[in-house]
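Q: Fold this one first, please.
A: Sequence and structure below.
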Amino acid sequence: MSGGLVGECTQEPAGRREVERVSPPARLPDPALALRSGPALCTWSLSLAPPPRLPWAACRGGANAGRRRADDWGRGQGTCAPAGVHVGPRPVPLRRVRLCPVRYGPARSRFAMGSGAAAGSVRTRYLVYFQYLGTDFNGVAAVRGAQRAIGVQNYLEEAAERLNSVVPVKLTISSRTDAGVHALSNAAHLDVQRRSGQPPFSPEVLAKALNTHLRHPAIRVLQAFRVPSDFHARYSATSRTYLYRLATGCPQPDQLSVFEQNRCWALRADSLDVAAMEEAAQHLLGTHDFSAFQSAGSPTTSSVRTLRRASVSPDLPSPFVLPQESRRLRFWSLEFESQSFLYRQVRRMTAVLVAVGLGALTPAQVKMILESRDPLGRHQTRVAPAHGLFLKSVLYGGHGDLATGNPAWAQWDRQPDDFSPETRGPKAGGLE
């Protein structure tokens, strides 16, 4: 009777066969006590949860030998069998779980980067030339954390994500331009790492793929070249040329053709004293401290730059201006060439030269402004509008230059081991 009472009150529901962690077994109720206590104890025993089960290995001899097996609880199987003898059903084996490589590290997951598809992949560096109309962008530099892409670099990197590179593609821009500034030809380098066994993209395929995935019509990739791994789009540049367009004979900005708006600085004056402007530009040529022509608070440590060329010349008539309008409108071009420029240096020099052309300053005063090294002076605080400025070209000493046919990069692409990195120019930065 006692055996039936204990077996009935402690019967385990069928189907429970999980393997749990090792824990000390609970003390079993005494059958004799159950007989003395009557039905009340039986009711209490029915509500008693079964003690924690022991895994199969823990019941085979040792300190747990002689204790009731967890799988045999309530079945009258007696104590655990001696070591090496199987009695009753075996526990369900534990399943192997694939661990997350991000949470648990690559050593505990076979899906970790470097042990799978990334092993043996080759990283290739490309030099990419691109152009854009800067009216719709907040400059060329990427704006991180923005909900929508508002920098030219944002759109280029979004297009580069479609290349399925093993590592994220990040662009290094050669020359950073402000909001509203355009570029006929800017440059950047990027690294693309394809999966193991896949050859690098050809430059032609890369340029075509980027143009295909670009989501803004005001950006276009011009050309791409394979370059050495130590090439740097910003520091390897040996020359940068900026173009500023002026339009005279425009009393009101809204009278300018819609195709020329945001493409030039419209001036009310009918003409400019070009000879005086050219004389003033001669004072700017050479190596000088251009502190007077940089914006206050510029992060540049040195304001010494070498201006190689500063020219003022009449521009061709605009094909977007009607004949009746072109009689009074005239276009002018100012070009500045240097290895690098200070922040807003070109726009400040343009404003001073325009003041000379309008008769507000003399060429001698331009020299005094340069020698003052004061960026907060009366005349040099004015900055020309951004929408008239174009980055015309970025050169790399004949190697990778868009205008020279790029013979050096083409030869390096065929024979990468013969390329001499000493052809790189001195380090410089381009800001405007």
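Q: Good. Now the second chain.
A: Here it is, same layout.
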Amino acid sequence: MLVFFGLFFTLSLGYFSWPMLKGELIDPRLKIKIPHEYFSMFNWLNQQKEGRVLQLPLHTFWGWEYHHWGFQGAGFTWFGLKQPFLTRDFDRWNLKNEKAYQELSYALYAQNLPLFEELLSKYHLQYLLLDKSILAPEQENKVLFFDETEKMLAGSSKIKLAKDFGQIRLYYSSVMESTKEYPELLDFENPPEELKKEAQEKAKIYDVINFDDFWLDKPFDYQIDFEKLDLKPELCGAQKENQVFSLTALQKNSFTLYGQNSLACVKIRLDKIIKTRPAPNFLLKIAYENEEEKAKICLAKWGTDDCAKGEVKNEGFFFQFPKNRELKNYEIRFLLDTENQFEEKKSLVKDLKLTTYLAKKTIPEEIVDNLDLESKKTQYLSFKEEKRDSLSFPELSHHQSYALLMEAKNESGLPLRVCLTNYTSKRCDLYANLQDGLNVFFIPPTDPEGQGYDVNLSNYAIGPIPSKNSLKSIKIVPLDYEFIKYQENPKGEYLLTNNQSYEKNWRAYEYQGGLKIKSLGKPVMIDGWENGWILKDKPEDQIIFFFLPQLLEYFGFLLIFILIVLLWFF
């Protein structure tokens, strides 16, 4: 009987395992046949020299692909290539790595060919793979930008169509500077075989705009003496019983505002500080320091109850002054809000500083006057569903840059999500979760002839926890793009990079022969993404790059060897 059951079990195991033994671990009905164009592309590209490949289109940051021949997933193309591949599936897990997608997609959808070429060099991109079998479900086909992409690439003298495989087009970019190969001592995946990788030596950092930081041109500071301004406390809110508002401890660079059950304020006319207009068009920055109870600040039209800029809690802000705005019509207001609070509060305001910046390019006056927008507080509540809202701004020109300011609060569940939809490309130029408080987003200019944006909001709830959010205000403020200026590197320095994402544990050494090895120190981040070593002299000898955590692998090999020795003898 035992023999029978043993034989039955063995035969059953063989029967059910037979598909796996035939290579059918995945049911053939679930397999999708990859079109032959991909294999032709693999064969051709693998015969070319090494160079990073950029996959197009760049219509979505989700890193999930849909193809009209049936495939959907995170992608597969890189499995058939020897070249490194730049696609969203590799960088979407790290916020710092998303810069490549953000910058490249912006340049592509803005049809800014010079910037796109600079970015190809910045990220060391040698090939562009345009896959026209990709779909955009639940979106218009226009969002893929196939025609616009091909037209832009055709207009470049540095990007040429290398091979056409039908649905797949492969372009070669010559914008890369010459590279020098540095052989690595070990192949870290299969030691000790030798593997050569490229490292690039450049004499400059490219002037690609970094949207995280920008500088304004020609600043001029105004220092304020409060003792000379004849400041007086005022009641800016409704009169009530048991109110207190006062101004004390007035000094040259500070004053203290007191309040109880009131909206106390101090007003300072701009023309008392800026006596001579610096230019017909300029940008004004207001900065100050605040201690104890936080005072609000706003820039208001003189003689009105409303703030032209809106009250903000941040300690400082920018305000655009076109030539039709007179300084004498505006005043700075500091407000201490203690309404319905019956305990006296005080706020110390000090070191008020006004800075003006001259504009290289002006914003149309009608845009500045009409785009200071604010809505009433709106609440969104969702339970196991998604609720959406939309605000349309069809008059906004895509040729202008803006700052989108949204003040929100998350009370429970997931935060509000915002998508800024571009009327021309039909894609989200901005997609982000709103944080508590003031959210500021930079919207760079895109196509010169288009106009119109939609601010789409999503209140999404999953599971038993409801999503409750409130949106206090939305403001779209024109931001003069020409205020941005470039910074250049000092002359006479050499830049060495190993063409890898920045990681502080990389090291570079110069092998000078024999036992002489010179350390080039720790890396710095260059071009906003990669390792770099700034050198005073051009390296003439062999360069060795080493990743310190790799020592852990060698330590593991040593432990395995010790374990084998112990097992052998004991």
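Q: Anything worth noting on the second one?
A: Residues 196-205+486-552 form one domain.
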